[in-house]
UniProtKB/TrEMBL annotation:
Superkingdom of this protein's organism: Bacteria
Cofactor(s), by name: adenosylcob(III)alamin
Organism: Streptomyces abyssalis
Name of the protein in its database record: Vitamin B12-dependent ribonucleotide reductase
UniProt domain Ribonucleotide reductase large subunit C-terminal: residue ranges: 158-697
MF GO annotations: cobalamin binding; cobalt ion binding; nucleotide binding; ribonucleoside-diphosphate reductase activity, thioredoxin disulfide as acceptor
Phylogenetic lineage: Bacteria, Bacillati, Actinomycetota, Actinomycetes, Kitasatosporales
Residue stretches of biased makeup (Basic and acidic residues): 890-902
Length: 962
């Protein structure tokens, strides 16, 4: 533990005052006189990132410098997201050293200025240890730190903001402005609208008030227009309404009605995909909605009694509703469209350290940060896999001592950042500097649990997660008390000291009563107990530097920066992951956690090799040779045949929640077969188990309804009769005819198309075969191809079919394995785009908006789709091009890279399928699933869930605020 050289709780605050001796910093990883950069091997790499939809280059920077052990993906994301300076100029950062120095040296300088260190030697130790931890992917600050610190722009370090709005037009317009400025800076914000009077109340002029739901429209439109940070993703925002607000039912139904609108417009042929041209006509799509419920309401739900809705101006009951019916409406809405989520008001405020300064009424967009209105929280997350130790005899342990020291280091740095940080509004700056809210957390929990042989949904897994979370928060508050001794407690502490110390006792009591499970978590609990005892002792003596210390954030982009297999508190997505190679190309490889888990469970090397090979081939552990049935649940993942149950996710949240200052960003995934009653049970158990907030997502709930019913109705209406003066004659194809056979994959559905031509090259027939013989889809495609073929032979022009059937939308839909048609709205949409490319002249299909990948690239470069007269002889050039590496060579190459990263050869690396561009798409192909996530706007690959947001593994983009 780091010590301070000052005794009493005196000293200077950030704004000045009495001086005090600072902290003495302890070395954890580094050696005096040796810089961390000199202890690793560096190499130069080229970063070229493309959009898989059209092949265009999104980002390119060559010759960047990174450690040899950093993955290609981490290198790409840090280079494209965090390096500052215009690309192609000398001012552009080109080395990880420059990025780390820009941030770490700024933190050191601020720490020295504000009296955090006892001596220059301690400041140097701080700098070296912080640089080492980032360099070796032990932890990472949240993205705004890497964006802004050490640059000429405002030093914003926070990703999470909470705003407020009162019942006045001036306040409402201020809300719009403040939210817009936060979005412009690339962050997200949340707020509670419950102070705005309801539509059932009167204005001072005598008319009816508009109500908060009405004002949500304006804020939603603003968010959709501004987007986030000038990027192509939508702004992240959270809107909360109290359950006793008279407009709560209208609030619950907002997104349900809009989902119905989306389906109706999509069926009518409008472009309603995320980012589509017509989606902007739909309201309330830029925010996560949550209802703030009280214990009284939840008790009324259990008893089936009435619950009063209160006017905002008088506080009197203006209406009574059946609590169970209102709760049912919440569950029905969440079942259909994943909104609203639920926040448990009394639980949240029971753990509030600063109640004398105001209640906690809202959260940030991802629901992990909860504190005072007009405040912010800067985040950092630790990579838990970096603290897993294997001794000489193969035994595992979690390095609690080193973990605690890194927590102390990171908390110190995070607190220093508030001393120099800029904020988007004056009110947020004042509150943050007065309460100094921090949000330390972790990533890779799912990987750690699997590697240690713990099922995610198990007592042992929850005990290990709880112990680590308790140690993290206890150590954070211990360091916060030490910082208070060195540089003073937070300004709001004196007023809230009784409440703050009460909450510390609650954390300590929860730690003492928590269940110990095995040899891994018991020593961690012991270290946590010692930390909490120090917290109580030092806190009473010195106070605390920070009103909040910990949250569990989604760890989206920074999780990729740290090469984490899992984000935040989430389990593994799947057992096989997608890996980019330094020399180009990609491989699929069994997660490194699998052999570690098998070794922990007592399997021999030969058995491990056989099981891993089975996983590499099949993507799951079902029927793996030699794997005992009682160990199957260790390898359960977020998706797949053996996915973790919804209550398994809730129980894990409940295990960590008592040891967090804030909350947990997490969505409880529920299978498509889930009922409204299942959602009700999740919301009810979340309250009983003591979580602070929950959101659910029922698989396929937000995907457009199948178009069959609507199309059948449309086709049932006969076309207007046309008077014809001739009867068309069918022109059959000769016995021998030229043809093209194309294999394709659309949204995971595989098939083959054979297109045969007349001798004069006109298309004459089409045969379609789907991979699942005997299925309804296969039968319908057979019939459809016969009908199209007969129509072609009777003289229906191909361009007529193309114009009618392209853009038709139904499942399966999504990514294809065709470079010319990267996305298809349905199998029919893909088929006729492919036929147009193969059989229609350029002018005809260009008028229909159908172009090849090469033509689209040419348009980006020259502004024209048309080939130039001096077009290169592509086929001729291909003859002289270097041969692509063979599968064998690629596999050997992957094994060498895997060996360099400490991955066992038993993990059987293999070339990734051509249609996969990240782990999500690879999982879909291997397991035949639909991950039910949006496509990344930047690179076109399918994103994956990270907390209550989405993350793109390809380029690091997120749909949230982290």
């Amino acid at each position: 533990m780091t010590e301070t050289t000052s005794g009493p709780a005196r000293g200077s605050r950030a704004k000045g005052g009495k001086t005090a001796k600072g902290l003495r910093m302890e070395r954890i990883h580094t050696t005096p006189g040796v810089h961390p950069y000199d202890e690793v091997q560096w190499e130069r790499r080229d970063v070229v990132m493309t959009n898989w939809r059209d092949g265009s280059v999104n980002f390119e920077q060559r010759g960047v410098e990174f450690p040899a052990f950093w993955s290609v993906n981490a290198t790409n994301i840090v280079t494209s997201k965090y390096f500052r300076g215009a690309v192609g100029t000398p001012q552009r950062e080109n080395s990880l050293k420059q990025l780390i120095d820009r941030v770490v040296k700024t933190y050191r300088a601020a720490g020295e200025t504000h009296g955090y260190f006892a001596s220059p030697a301690d400041a140097e130790t701080f700098e070296h240890e912080l640089a080492y931890a980032v360099l070796h992917q032990v932890f990472s600050f949240n993205s705004p730190v890497w964006f802004n610190v050490g640059t000429a722009q405002p030093q914003q370090v926070s990703a999470c903001f909470i705003l407020s709005v009162d019942d006045s037009m001036e306040s409402i317009l201020d809300w719009y402005k403040e939210e817009g400025m936060i979005f412009k800076g690339g962050s997200g914000a949340g707020l509670n609208l419950s102070r705005i009077r309801s539509s059932k109340e009167l204005l001072s002029s005598g008319g009816n008030a508009s109500g908060p739901v009405s004002f949500m429209r304006g804020a939603d439109a603003s968010a959709g227009t501004i987007k986030s940070g000038g990027a192509t993703r939508r702004a992240a925002k959270m809107v909360v309404l109290d359950v006793d607000h008279p407009d709560v039912e209208a609030f619950i139904e907002t997104k349900v009605k809009e989902e119905e609108k989306i389906r109706a417009l999509r069926d009518a042929g409008f472009d309603m995909d995320l980012g589509g041209d017509d989606i902007t006509s739909v309201q309330y799509q830029n925010a996560n909605n949550s209802v703030r419920v009280t214990d009284d309401f939840m008790k009324a739900v259990e008893s089936g009694s009435k619950f009063g809705l209160r006017g905002r101006m008088t506080g009197e009951i203006v209406d009574e509703v059946d609590a169970k019916e209102l709760f049912r409406k919440m569950a029905e809405a969440a079942h259909v469209c994943a909104d609203p989520g639920i926040q448990y008001d009394d639980t949240i405020n029971h753990w509030h350290t600063s109640p004398e300064s105001g209640r906690i009424t809202a959260s940030n967009p991802c629901s992990e940060y909860m504190h005072l209105d007009n405040s912010s929280c800067n985040l950092a997350s630790l990579n838990l896999m970096k603290f897993l130790r294997d001794d000489d005899e193969g035994h595992q342990s979690f390095d609690a001592g080193r973990f605690a020291k890194v927590v102390e280091l990171v908390i110190t740095a995070m607190d220093i950042s508030i001393s120099f940080a800029d904020f988007p509004t004056e009110k947020i700056g004042e509150t943050t500097r007065a309460f100094r809210q921090l949000g330390i957390g972790y990533a890779n929990l799912g990987a750690l649990l699997m590697a240690t042989g713990h099922a995610y949904d198990s007592d042992g897994g929850r005990a290990l997660a709880g112990s680590i979370t308790s140690l993290m928060t206890g150590t954070s508050y211990r360091r916060s008390a030490e910082l208070a001794a060195a540089v003073g407690p937070y300004e709001g502490y004196a007023r809230n000291s009784d409440a703050h110390n009460r909450v510390m006792r609650q954390h300590s009591d929860a730690n003492d009563s928590a269940r110990r499970a095995d040899d891994l978590d018991t020593p961690v609990w012991a270290a946590a107990t010692e930390a909490w005892q120090d917290v109580l002792r030092l806190g009473e003596k010195h106070g605390f530097r920070n009103a909040q210390a910990s949250v569990l954030a989604p760890t989206g982009t920074i999780g990729l920066m740290m090469d984490c297999d899992t984000t935040g508190v989430e389990p593994d997505l799947a057992l096989v992951k997608f890996k980019k190679l330094v020399g180009g190309g990609s491989m699929q490889i069994v997660n490194n956690t699998v052999p570690k888990a098998l070794k922990r469970l007592g399997y021999q090397a030969e058995q491990i090799e056989a099981i891993v090979e089975h996983i590499a081939e099949h993507g799951n552990i079902s029927d793996a040779p030699g794997l005992r049935l009682e160990h199957y649940d260790v390898f359960d993942c977020a998706m797949g045949e053996r996915s973790i149950s919804p209550m398994g996710h809730v129980r894990m949240m409940a295990a960590a929640q008592p040891f967090l200052s804030g909350a947990i960003s997490k969505t409880v995934n529920m299978p498509a077969s889930s009922t409204v009653e299942d959602v009700e049970e999740i919301y009810l158990q979340g309250w009983k188990l003591g979580t602070k907030a929950l959101a659910v997502y029922v698989e396929n709930s937000k995907v457009g309804q199948p178009l069959s019913a609507k199309r059948k109705e449309e086709k049932a209406e006969p076309e207007p009769e046309k008077v014809v003066e001739y009867r068309p004659v069918r022109q059959r194809l000769p016995k021998g005819r030229p043809g093209i056979t194309t294999s394709f994959t659309v949204g995971g559905a595989e098939g083959y198309m054979t297109a045969n031509s007349y001798p004069d090259d006109g298309l004459g027939e089409v045969f379609l075969k789907m991979s699942k013989q005997g299925s309804t889809l296969a039968g319908m495609m057979d019939a459809f191809s016969i009908a199209v073929s007969v129509g072609l032979q009777y003289g229906v022009p191909l361009e007529t079919y193309v114009s009618k059937f392209t853009n038709m939308r139904f499942e399966p839909a999504g990514m294809t394995d065709d470079p010319d048609v990267r996305m298809a709205q349905s199998i029919v949409d893909y088929i006729f785009r492919r036929l147009a490319l193969d059989f229609l002249p350029f002018e005809t299909r260009s008028a229909l908006g159908i172009h090849s990948a090469g033509e689209r690239q040419r348009h980006l470069e020259t502004g024209s789709y048309e080939p130039s007269e001096d077009e290169l002889d592509v086929e001729g050039l291909a003859q002289s091009a270097p041969k692509a590496e063979t599968v064998k060579e690629a596999k050997e190459k992957a094994k060498e890279e895997a060996k360099a990263e400490g991955v066992s050869e038993a993990q059987a690396p293999a070339p990734a399928p051509g249609g996969a561009h990240n782990s999500t798409e690879l999982m879909e192909m291997q397991l035949g699933l639909n991950a039910d996530a949006p496509l990344c706007f930047s690179c076109g690959t399918k994103m994956r869930r990270a907390g209550s947001c989405y993350l793109c593994e390809g380029c690091g983009s997120t749909s949230g605020c982290s």
